[in-house]
Amino acid sequence: MKGKVYLVGAGPGDPELLTLKAFRLLGSAGVVLHDDLVTPAILELASPAAQILNVGKRCGRRGFSQEQISDLTISYANDGYTVVRLQGGDPLIFGRAAEEIAALRKADVDFEIVPGVTSALGAAATAKVSLTERRVASSVIFTTGHRCDRNSTTAWPVVTAPGAEFRPTVVVYMPTDYASIAKELQGAGWERETPCLLVSSAGTPQETNFLTLLSALPDAPQLSSPRLLIIGAVVKTASVGQTLAAQKFHGAPALCRSVSW
């Protein structure tokens, strides 16, 4: 009999943020194929009898190709195993879920998707920031700093009037070129004083944060991966290690400070 594949979201790193279903599947699966960003604390929840293999891909280091990952997943399922394909965050947000789903369907392998807490929500929760706020941000946009086509650009939301209300909150996964992000957003009408929050290793004991303004973003540190960037008025309420809600966002020097907790 064929086995079954579960595409499971591991969340941002804290085992207590796993869904109950993810927790149950980890404890019963015969094979766990995990991404590089899945924390050891979560892998410890796997069955002692499970085969555990890191199939992650990290920038600057060779690993499994996407085709090899899919082939391996399908092979284990065809051998009758219950396979947990464990991905950091949510498998449907900036993962390779679409490619893996297509491969599983082509191979006629039964599969199920178990969502997880994506890192944007984990980072916002620990910083005590609501990504939407009915008075200033009625929507949120998730985008990525990495693309297959390096010549492509992001269609940033255009702000037509200074001080316009209800501009969206923007969350950039894996930001690298801070200068380009700042330049393009300001070119789209975003104010120089727009607050920004950089977050590294969201939801883990190693989480580090850096508050700044859009105008000073090019000078912000390249925090270690995985990292993301939250941009928008909602960042004014951020609480990173101490309460910052009363602090005024009118001077970059007062905000360019790193806080780790």
Description:
The protein has 261 residues and is α/β, with parallel strands linked by helices. The protein has two domains: 4-117, Tetrapyrrole methylase, N-terminal domain (Cobalt-precorrin-4 Transmethylase, domain 1, 3-Layer(aba) Sandwich); 120-260, 2-Layer Sandwich (Methyltransferase, Cobalt-precorrin-4 Transmethylase, Domain 2). It has seven helices and eleven strands. The strands form two sheets. Strands 6-7-10-8-9-11 form a six-stranded mixed beta sheet. Strands 3-2-4-1-5 form a five-stranded parallel beta sheet, with helices on both faces. Strand 2 (31-34), helix 2 (40-43) and strand 3 form a beta-alpha-beta unit. The protein is elongated, with a radius of gyration of 20 Å. The termini are far apart.
Set out the fold topology:
Layout (H helix, E strand, L loop, with lengths): L3 E6 L10 H9 L2 E4 L5 H4 L7 E4 L11 H13 L3 E6 L9 H10 L4 E4 L4 H8 L13 E5 L24 E5 L4 H10 L7 E6 L7 E6 L13 E5 L20 H4 L1 E4 L1
Parallel strand pairs: 1-4, 1-5, 2-3, 2-4, 6-7
Antiparallel strand pairs: 7-10, 8-9, 8-10, 9-11
Please give a quick description of this structure.
This protein is α/β, with parallel strands linked by helices and 261 residues long. It is built from 7 helices and 11 strands.
